[in-house]
Amino acid sequence: MPAYRTIVVGTDGSNSSYRAVDRAAAIAADTGAKLVIVCAYIAPDQRRVEVAQDRLGSDVAYQVSGANPAEDTVRTATERATRLGAADVEAIVRSGEPVAVLSKTVAKFDADLLVVGNRGLNTLTGRLLGSVPSDAARKSSVDVLIVHTVG
């Protein structure tokens, strides 16, 4: 199997998602692949923020709301990826639902690997409402690596 040429990794600024960035960066460094770091954010519409808080409960510290936190998130992720040896890194910030943003980015860059963390896979909310890793894996047209980032 040929090495991956373009890797897309999603981050929301959580420690868990940064571990997924680290894994994607290590793969990119090993294979010479382009790494595209993506952060989807929710536009600062108070109604949408409240819906997200209701869906996710009290653990919303990692939820990105508005473009400025998303810009900080990809800047931090890019610095981490570069330190780990990824040479060709691009950062993308887009408004929208995470899975849709990831899917569009994979298509836009003709990526052949999508990397996400496993946060939400084993939670009741994730099982009832879906989670980014499970939805991304189910809807992806390319290989998906779900990095074990939380227990």
Describe the overall structure:
- The structure is a single chain.
- About 45% of the residues lie in helices and about 20% in strands.
- With about 150 residues, the chain is of the alpha/beta class.
- It has one domain (about 5-145): HUPs (Rossmann fold), CATH 3.40.50.
- Helix 1 links the parallel strand 1 (about 5-10) and strand 2.
- About 35% of the residues are buried.
- The model is unreliable at about 120-130 (pLDDT under 50).
Overview in brief:
The chain is α/β, with parallel strands linked by helices. The chain has helices at 15-31, 46-56, 67-83, 98-109, 124-129, 132-139; strands at residues 6-10, 34-41, 89-95, 113-117, 143-147.
How are the elements arranged and paired?
Elements lengths: L5 E5 L4 H17 L2 E8 L4 H11 L10 H17 L5 E7 L2 H12 L3 E5 L6 H6 L2 H8 L3 E5 L4
Parallel strand pairs: 1-2, 1-4, 2-3, 4-5
Helix pairs in contact: 1-3, 4-6
Notable characteristics:
Universal stress protein, 5-stranded parallel β-sheet, 47% helix, alpha/beta, Rossmann fold, globular, Rossmann-like_a/b/a_fold, 151 residues, 5 strands
Count of helices?
Answer: 6
Label the CATH architecture. 3-Layer(aba) Sandwich
Rg is 14 Å
How is the quaternary structure best described? single chain
